[in-house]
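hey so i finaly got around to running the thing on LPS-assembly protein LptD from Pseudooceanicola albus. pasting the sequence first so u can double check i didnt mess up the copy paste, my clipboard has been acting weird all day
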Amino acid sequence: MPPVPAAAKRGAPTRSLTRATPAPRWRWTLGAGLALAMGLAGGAQAQDTSGPAMLVADKIFMEGPDKLVAEGHVEALQGDVRLRATRVTYNKETGELALEGPMTLTQADGSTVIVADSGTLDRDLQNGLMRGARIMLNQQVQLAAAQVARVEGRYTQLYKTTVSSCQVCGQSKPPLWQIRAESVVHDTEAGQLYFDKARFEVMGVPLLYLPKLRLPDPTQKRASGFLIPEFRRDTTLGTGMKLPYYLRLGDNRDLTLTPFISDKTRTMEFRYRQAYRTGALSVIGAVSRDDLDSDFSSRGYIQADGLFYLPRDFTLSFSLKAVSDVSYLSDYDYSDEDRLRSEITLDRARRDEWIGFSMVHYRSLRADENYNTIPSYIGDASYEKRLFPALIGGELRYGAELHGHYRISDSDTPDADGIVEGRDVARLSVSSDWRRTWTLRHGLRVETLGGMVADSFRTMDDSTLPDSQSGITPYSAVTLRLPMQRANADGSRDVIEPVAQLAWSGGHALKVADEESTRVEFDEGNLLGLTRYSAPDRRERGWRTAYGLSWAHYTASDWTLRGVVGQVWQQKVDADFSRSSGLDSRYSDVLIAGQVAAPGGWSVTARGLYDPADALQLDKAEALASWISTRTTFSASYVWLPRDEQQDRAEVVSQWGLDGSVQVNDTWGLSANARYDIAAERPVKAGLGVTWRNECVEVGLGLDRSYGSSEVVTPSTDVTFTVGLRGFTLNDAGGSTRKSCSN
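ok and heres what it spat out for the 3d tokens, dont ask me to read them lol
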């Protein structure tokens, strides 16, 4: 307590500490801070708060021997708590602060704001009682109460409480939604709100009564509780509701359980996540009992994904999938995969070394595919190292690759379609090469490459092929590039690079099955490749030349245009190149590819293969367009593939797809997607979504239609409806535009 003037001690009239001419506010700030520090320091230390209290006011004076009064724009600070009031009276005997409002009590981080008409607090601002109070949590949720008690600086007790994140316009107009309760306790450390005798109302109409209710406050990022419910109407699954429950199991673990109950199914969906010091694990799945498949009383699926960083720079990752039957994923719209791929990989990538191991398992969900006759288990191990020998210069690479795939079937003879359905294969490939680049006069770059690879195959359960085959393939290539750049007067730049390659590969073709290189792609990425095959069971041999031209244009306004044109000449045409590969003749198809990227997030990419022997007839085409901005995301794709028996494509494939969303304004959002099969002249799928939100609620409506035509995927229509209360839903960013109140 600051020293009291002697006149006041002798009972003299109360004397103001202000001067006749008001001093600048900063002077009273200093004097008030010292005075309150002397009076409150002992209590502050006893409560272990962070430092002495500080008082700032326009006017400070003594009222008797035991009361210090501050008036006019009063501010008191204690630790991370800031108090503002019209008048504050400190009583030395009781250690209380009497507050006259309007008054506010704010945490330093702004997460909690209390506004009240009047109240009392202890000298540490940790305990007290406030009347006519309103609390704003994280600028999202408002709690109004007749009386608010602050206990130990951690708990806030509210009586006769109304809770809502909606803006309230006048006493006669109820908010869109609110929760009324006899009492509410806010635990600021745990970030929880505890309701007693809670009543949920919409537009003032009571809809639900709960004796007890617990909700996370808006500051919580991970708190146990119910998430946004989803109402769903599906032609396959019927009408039902999903009600997710999030369970926080610790700082690094959580579990989400989502029961889905409809007139045709009883399903429990789950998601488990755990973070480790060196990685993360996620397990998702569902278990169902339904009336859709009479062959299975219980159905379900599970998927486990993980990524772990091991010692010595190794990385372990896995994605494991299992399902009860072929139609479960499509029935419940969990996935449109028609083959489940499970994989475990262990690898290490360093600047000059690569080590990789992988094991893959396939489970076919296709009605026309036998799981026992496809390569179900696939294993790979690879190693690659590069050196930079000073004696000869350049770069030296060597490596090895071990591969094997296994079928469950043990049939070793061809069936009616001429295919051996039990064939198993193991392969070892060892390679070494040297490469170097020179830059000559006028910027001409010369790239040389020479090396060899040895392959050894072991074929099992196939009576039509030798048990083992081995061979050596030497290869070499010389590539010439002449990059040129031009700066234009308008600030743009052009970069042009003609390129030509002469390549040769020796050796002889091995008598092994073509099972890894069944799909050949010819694009700008492998125009200068020594082989366009994707695996060593097929290799290009003989002399080949590749030539092309690339062009790029960069404008001062951030437009970018790129183009590539190229072609390959082959001395010997490989019979395993199919028509749609563009490499089935001595002169390959002409590859033309381009890209346009514009300011504002626009980009268009397209490529095509054109047959020079047929007046540049189109043999393959694909295109992708996208637009990403602050309010809009949009993508469009198109693909055209011809009939190709070698690639098991009996009909032309021609499809386009659209997917996009736009936030029209702060309230409305739209999304849509569609895919159409031009060749079959029918839609494949379509969807439409609408969201509406204001400061306190978010509503979503979605409509999806699948036009399935297979035995596994049947046509279905799915309608979903979600309602979320903003301020109480996890990952609620808040911050939407507050509505205006009109008289």
